[in-house]
Amino acid sequence: MSGFWVHARPSSRLLAAIVLVGVALVGCKRSEPPVAEAVRPVRTQIISLQQIELVGAYPGEVRPRIESTLAFQVGGKLVQRLVQPGDPVKAGQMLARVDPQDLELAESAARAELTAADVERARAAADLARFSQLRDSGFISKAEFDQRKAAHDAAVARVAQARASLRGQSNRADYAVLQADAAGVVTGVDAEVGQVVAAGQPVVRVARTAEKEVAFLIPEGRLQTVRQLGEAEVTLWTGGPALRATVREISATADPATRAFPARVQLHDAPESVQFGMTATVRFATPVDEPLAQVPLSALLREGDRTAVWILDPATMTVGRRPVDVQTMTDKQAVLGPGLQDGTEVVTAGVHLLRDGQKVNRLSHDGDARRDSAASSSAAAMLPLNSGNTARE
Questions:
Q1: Residue 140 DSSP class
Q2: 3-state helix, strand and coil shares in percent for the chain, rounded to the nearest 5
Q3: How far apart, in whole angstroms, are the C-alpha atoms of residue 353 and residue 42?
Q4: Which of 49, 110, 337, 354 could form a disulfide with 291 if both were Cys (CB 3.0 to 4.6 A apart)?
Q5: Residue 71: per-residue pLDDT
Q6: Is the CB of residue 283 less than 8 Å from the CB of residue 328?
Q7: Partners of 246 in the β-ladder
């Protein structure tokens, strides 16, 4: 028993020492002063409500209203092609030609058949005249005279048949030359010299320049608005004045890939400088009744399907979150729906590092929106609208 107590005493002392050290450490930790919350520096902007004309803007491509695929009406070997893609053409201009030798031979044969038929008709007419006199004199019967008259009528019919055949063969010979049916520009070729083409096989594609359109896609959320407006203006990526346009066609079904509706607007008085394939922007103006606010995109805080901004309280220098409805946006600016008051100070930088009630330090202003109200209003009047960037869509 004495040995057991000898070994137990050091263990009790060690346990007591560990408890004392722990208590001391806890006491030291509680005595540390609390860490002060950092004050975040932010940029802000004082917004000014303005009468803004919202605009839906959609990218598009200049296309012809009519693009014809031209082909020969007869088959043959292609011996000549006179145009290349991009060449302008006039109505009636020769585009290509097939070997006309067989067609010319067929035309010569039809002409010879017409000559033979005409000779036969002349002989039958002379016979009919002589037999008519013989019938009047009573030398032949009425039945024989009728037989001669039938032969004459058949000869006349053969002449008409041969003449129609010659006309058809002449047309076929003319079909050896492929001509443009209207003024336009060559957009593609589908046959080369030396190739044997069949009747109706595509050879040259020509887009008519008389009517030009812009093809674009309408998001399903804006379909009814665009349909009701009808009028639009088109600007080209290359610059130049805006062109008047009218909605001509809206597809009844959405594109399966984009879920947007293909549409076309017809350009009015489009200059010759507008070329097919150019990038264009189709804009639809929608006036609003009440003034709206315009802020930089950096002021928006996206959380799931909701959008908010941080409002600065100058009295307490704290920020609070405010949900907003984004009406439209560009690559730099966003137009917000009703809800913000005139003169509200909005945080425009550092929005992802803030929380409700946090104290901030105003670093600088991005600019007073009131000071630039005229410029902002004119710029906002041309804001592009993209359904993928709006809070509701």
A1: S
A2: 30, 35, 35
A3: 10
A4: 49
A5: 94
A6: no
A7: 231, 266
Task: Report, as ranges of residue numbers, the positions in the chain whose pLDDT lies below 50.
Answer: 1-9, 23, 31, 368-393
Q: What pLDDT is attached to residue 372?
A: 44
pLDDT at residue 393 in the model? 35
Residue type, 306: R
- Sorted by where each starts, the structural domains of the chain and their CATH numbers stand as 41-51+290-389 (2.40.420.20), 58-65+211-287 (2.40.30.170), 73-99+176-208 (2.40.50.100), 100-174 (1.10.287.470)
The answer to whether 165 and 109 have CB atoms below 8 angstroms apart is no
Q: What would the DSSP string read from start to end of 333-390? A: EEEE-BTBPTT-EEEEE-GGG--TT-BEEEEEES--TTTTHHHHHHHHTT----GGGS
Number of H helices and number of E strands within the chain? 5, 23
Read off the DSSP letter of residue 80.
Answer: E
Expressed in angstroms, the distance from the first to the final Cα of the chain is 85
DSSP H/E element including 11: helix 2-30
Instruction: At 174, give phi and psi (nearest 5°).
Output: -70, -30
If one counts every other C-beta atom within 10 angstroms of the C-beta of residue 262, the result is 16
Q: What are 77's strand-pairing partners?
A: 196
pLDDT tens readout for residues 61-104: 999 999 999 999 888 999 999 999 989 999 999 999 999 888 88
269 Ramachandran zone, left/alpha/beta (phi>0; psi -120 to 50): left
Please report the pLDDT score of residue 387 as a whole number.
37
Sole residue written with tokens 């002392």: 13
Give the pLDDT score at 370: 45
293-296 and 333-336 beta bridge pairing: antiparallel
pLDDT of residue 127: 81
AA letter at 47 = I
pLDDT for 219-250, tens place per residue? 887 888 888 888 999 999 888 889 999 999 99
**Is 109 within 8 Å of 242 (Cβ atoms)?**
no
127 φ/ψ angles, rounded to the nearest 5 degrees = -60, -40
Going by the DSSP 8-state scheme, the letter that residue 151 receives in this structure is H
- Sheet strand arrangement including 67-71: 67-71, 202-208, 184-189, 88-89
pTM above 0.90, yes or no: no
Q: Would you list the DSSP string of 19-75?
A: HHHHHHHHHHHHTSPPPPPPPEEEEEEE---B--EEEEEEEEEEEES-EEEEE-SS-
Q: Which residues pair with 312 in a beta bridge?
A: 319
